[in-house]
Write a structure and sequence with these properties.
This protein has helices spanning 5-9, 20-28, 81-85, and strands at 51-53, 61-64, 70-74, 78-80. The chain has 89 residues and is α+β, with helices and mostly antiparallel strands. The protein starts with a helix and ends with a helix.
């Protein structure tokens, strides 16, 4: 049994206030993408015009601090460029 995009979105707390028809309309506007392990999904200077919802697997959000060391911000379910930009290293 496959889970539709609307069914999946209904499990995401951010979308809990949407009814079924709104979830279906929103789901129709989404694009599902698959990334191999170790892929870079976005870079620090990319525009913040997308929202990523992790349906399967994990994403590690990493920035490079002023000292050149890798700083792991976390393993989110939901993220966008604007959320990452709030950190100042």
């Amino acid at each position: 049994m496959t889970t539709t995009t609307a069914d999946f979105l209904a499990t995401v707390p951010l979308f809990s206030g949407l009814d079924r028809s709104e979830l279906q309309r929103f789901g129709e506007m989404t694009r599902e993408k698959f990334y191999p392990r170790g892929s870079v999904i976005l870079f620090e200077n990319d525009p913040g015009d997308s929202l990523f919802v992790v349906r399967q697997g994990r994403v590690k959000v990493v920035l490079i601090g002023e000292d050149g060391r890798e700083v792991i911000l976390g393993v989110p379910l939901l993220f966008n460029k604007a959320n990452i930009d709030q950190y100042d290293f």
